[in-house]
Each structure stands twice: as C-alpha cells, then as structure tokens.
User: Which sequence fits this backbone?
C-alpha cells in the first residue's frame, strides 16, 4: 500500500537554529515548494513511516562565465544527482534554483544558490528553515583545495576551512557546524598562482577526466548517504578515495 508524505506549508521554523521568517509562496506555487514522496507501509497495523527530508546544496557561481570552473564543482554534482534521479531543477526559492524529488523513498531538495559562492548562506538558511530540515540532513557540496584533484570526502561535520561559501552557510545556521559536507578535491594552485584566478579557471583535459569520474562516484555516494546515513559503506568510500590515485 502506498501513501504520500507532504510537508506542510509553514513560514516559521521550529528547528534549533535561528527562526527565519520566510515569505510563503503564492497559492499557485505550492506544489513546487512542498517535499512529496511515495512510501510503503511496513507495519501491519497501518502505522505510517515518515522520512526526514534531505537538503543537498551545491556551491557555485551562477552564469555561463563560471560554468566548468573549479569553484563550480558543487553545482556540477547537483546537476549529476538531478539527472540520475530524474529531478527537475525548475523552481526559484530563497535565491536558489531548486528541484524536489526523492532518492528511494527519502524526500530530497536539491539546491544551487544563485547568490554567488560567498553569500550561499542567504539561500541555505531560509531553505532549511522553511522545510524544517535538521542540521544532520543538510549536505553541503563544495570544492576543496586541500584534497587532490578528483578526490572526494564525506564528513558528518567540520569547520569552514577558510572556504567563504561554507563560512556564509555556517553564519546563517547560527554558527553551527554539525552538518554534513561533501568535499570535491580540486588541488592547490601551482607555484605562485593567485588563488582566486585558480578557482575561476577551468580544468585541464586530464583534470576534467578525473573530475568527471569523481562525479559518477559522487552520485552513488550521495545515494548511500541519504539511504543509510554515515554507515560503514561511507567509511569504505572515504578510504577508497584517499588512496585511489596511488599506484600499487
């Protein structure tokens, strides 16, 4: 037997980070701003199984000018997940391009803030509040220079690591850091190259090949995280990523 879970239209959140007043969308747009998923009833007594939604946010800069640059790998991962799960990114809410769907029976909200990386929190805070997503289910996807190009890492929490986009998100979540991160390695700038120029540069052919392969692995990792949480499979995933460029 199937039933639909529909999260209510609310404008004030009760989650433990700051209460953010978010304008309610017009009546005609309600369908696009509610998380909805079909789920089975495993209990013979008819008890409903409810799934906590995930907010998966990729950091990047909007516009064709930045497409394919190192700083936009977060956007790329969201695009890969949306394609793999058949989720349309066709709604603007809280300064972000969003898509609503599910992985398995778990409802997810994909988001690409259109605020530019350094102000990403202006989207993440209101979206998390509006949909009442707990911190442990806010997955932030972004570029990480401390990791080699194409190496991925999933963490349950952490600091901002001098990443201005992550810093902005933390500021809009009342300084909290207990939310998952999906880091995509882009390596360090060569020599004395300016960091900003490096981040806004496109990948070389070899680097692009590594990143594309990582994106495919990343989609499966996101599925695993949403369905199983930080299980032993995620631990093995991180270990495999750490040594995947080492030749035996």
Assistant:
């Amino acid at each position: 037997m199937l039933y639909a879970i529909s999260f209510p239209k609310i404008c004030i959140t009760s989650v433990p980070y700051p209460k953010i007043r978010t304008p309610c969308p017009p009546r005609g747009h309600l369908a696009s701003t509610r998380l909805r998923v079909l789920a089975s009833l495993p209990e013979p007594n008819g008890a409903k199984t409810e799934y906590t939604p995930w907010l998966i946010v990729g950091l990047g800069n909007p516009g064709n000018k930045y497409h394919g640059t190192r700083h936009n790998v977060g956007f790329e991962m969201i695009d890969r997940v949306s394609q793999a799960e058949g989720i349309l990114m066709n709604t603007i809410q809280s300064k972000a391009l969003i898509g609503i769907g599910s992985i398995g029976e778990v409802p997810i909200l994909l988001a690409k803030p259109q605020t530019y990386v350094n102000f990403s929190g202006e989207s993440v805070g209101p979206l998390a509040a509006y949909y009442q997503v707990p911190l442990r289910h806010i997955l932030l996807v972004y570029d990480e220079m401390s990791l080699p190009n194409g190496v991925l890492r999933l963490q349950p929490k952490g600091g901002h690591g001098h990443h201005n986009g992550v810093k902005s998100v933390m500021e809009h979540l009342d300084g909290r850091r207990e939310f998952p991160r999906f880091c995509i390695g882009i390596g360090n700038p060569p020599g004395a190259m300016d960091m900003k120029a490096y981040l806004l540069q496109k990948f070389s052919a070899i680097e692009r090949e590594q990143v594309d392969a990582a994106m495919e692995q990343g989609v499966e990792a996101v599925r695993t995280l949403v369905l199983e949480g930080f299980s032993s499979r995620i631990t093995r995933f991180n270990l495999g990523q750490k040594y995947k460029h080492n030749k035996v």
About this structure: Residues 205-228 form the longest helix (24 residues). The beta strands are 2-6, 36-40, 54-58, 91-93, 96-103, 106-113, 138-144, 152-155, 181-185. The radius of gyration is 18 Å. The chain has six helices and nine strands.
